[in-house]
């Protein structure tokens, strides 16, 4: 069971929340009414200026009390205020643009004037200080007076030119005004029929212009489509050219491969033909050969064995002969060495005897 104090607390909280919501809604409504009152006051000020004392005066009271404004009236006032605000914004924008233009002109004029002053200062310093004949840097008053007189004469000439230009512009303006006046007088002399004819011609020309504009629009659309088609065609052509290049390269590779394969095939065919010819010759030789008989084979085998035995005997004889030959050669070599030694001894003995005879003859003399 809920206690009475707890129920009272819950109800008080609900009441506080409800009061806060109502207060918030009331404040929002008051803000909205304040904004509406400000807008309506501005509308009244626009339509009827306030009195000198600043009071609006008593409000009009309809029969049966004060009448509330309908939504249509509020909407009308809002639209009027919106138009007025837009007009004020446009006026302020125009004024701001004019101010910006005037400030730009003033800034440009100031820049030009500053440049002219800098130029004059540079020329003054160049003519009077740098080109001075006095090495001490002193400048005579005559040079200064002459310099400023020349500047004044140049300014006067410039003023004369500007005055002449101004007069010519005034004359042009007068001519234009005279032409406009003549055109306006000619327009006053025109009759209603002429105006109607001019209107008809104007409508015809406007119709022709619209028709030509439509044709021009169609031509532009056609041109755009043509350009798109041309670009697509160029893209396709580029792709086809690339594909053609790839195909040509593949074709060249295939041709080279086919040529290599054909050369290899020709070599294989030649090898096959040679092999066939060799096989044919072998078959012919094989067919032309006669098989030996068994007795002939036995006789040939026995003869071969006998020949092998004879060959072995001859090999032994040759070895024995070689051994004997080597012995004879060795003996002959030893005999030759002995003969050579004996010959050397004999020659030495003969030389000794000759020397002894020579000594004896010398002693006898």
TrEMBL record:
Write out the annotated subcellular location. Cell projection, Cilium
Q: Which residues form a coiled coil?
A: 152-215, 244-271
Q: Name one Pfam family in it.
A: CCDC113_CCDC96_CC
Chief location category: other
Report domain CCDC113/CCDC96 coiled-coil positions.
Answer: 153-322
State whether keyword Coiled coil applies: yes
What keywords does the record list, in alphabetical order?
Answer: Cell projection, Cilium biogenesis/degradation, Coiled coil
* One cellular component (GO) term of this entry: axoneme
Disordered: annotated span: 46-65
Give the record's GO biological process terms. Answer: cilium assembly
**Which InterPro entries does the entry mention?**
CC_CF, CCDC113/CCDC96_CC
Protein family per UniProt: Belongs to the CFAP263 family.
Put simply, this protein is called: Cilia- and flagella-associated protein 263
């Amino acid at each position: 069971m809920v206690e009475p104090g707890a129920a009272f607390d819950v109800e008080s909280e609900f009441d506080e929340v409800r009061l806060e919501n109502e207060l918030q809604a009331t404040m929002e409504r008051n803000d909205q009414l304040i904004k509406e009152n400000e807008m309506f006051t501005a509308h009244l000020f626009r339509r009827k200026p306030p009195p000198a004392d600043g009071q609006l005066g008593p409000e009009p009271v309809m029969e049966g009390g004060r009448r509330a404004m309908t939504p249509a009236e509020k909407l009308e006032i809002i639209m009027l205020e919106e138009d007025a605000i837009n007009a004020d914004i446009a006026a302020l924008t125009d004024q701001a643009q004019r101010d910006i233009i005037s400030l730009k002109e003033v800034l440009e004029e100031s820049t030009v004037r500053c440049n002219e002053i800098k130029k004059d200062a540079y020329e003054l310093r160049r003519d009077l200080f740098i080109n001075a004949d006095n090495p001490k840097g002193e400048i005579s008053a005559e040079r200064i007076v002459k310099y400023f007189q020349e500047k004044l004469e140049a300014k006067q000439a410039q003023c004369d030119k500007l005055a002449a230009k101004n007069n010519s512009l005034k004359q042009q303006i007068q001519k234009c005004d005279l032409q406009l006046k003549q055109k306006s007088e000619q327009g006053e002399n025109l009759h209603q029929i002429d105006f109607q004819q001019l209107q008809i011609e104007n409508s015809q020309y406007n119709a022709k212009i619209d028709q030509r504009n439509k044709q021009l629009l169609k031509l532009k659309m056609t041109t755009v489509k043509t350009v798109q088609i041309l670009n697509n065609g160029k893209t396709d052509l580029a792709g086809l050219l690339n594909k053609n290049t790839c195909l040509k390269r593949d074709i060249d590779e295939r041709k080279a491969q086919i040529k290599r394969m054909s050369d290899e095939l020709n070599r294989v065919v030649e090898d096959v033909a040679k092999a066939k010819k060799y096989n044919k010759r072998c078959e012919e030789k094989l067919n032309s050969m006669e098989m030996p008989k068994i007795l002939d084979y036995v006789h040939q085998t026995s003869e071969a064995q006998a020949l092998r035995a004879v060959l072995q005997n001859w090999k032994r004889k040759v070895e024995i002969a070689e051994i004997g030959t080597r012995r004879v050669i060795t003996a002959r070599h030893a005999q030759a060495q002995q003969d050579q030694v004996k010959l050397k001894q004999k020659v030495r003995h003969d030389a000794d005897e000759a020397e002894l005879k020579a000594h004896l003859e010398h002693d006898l003399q």
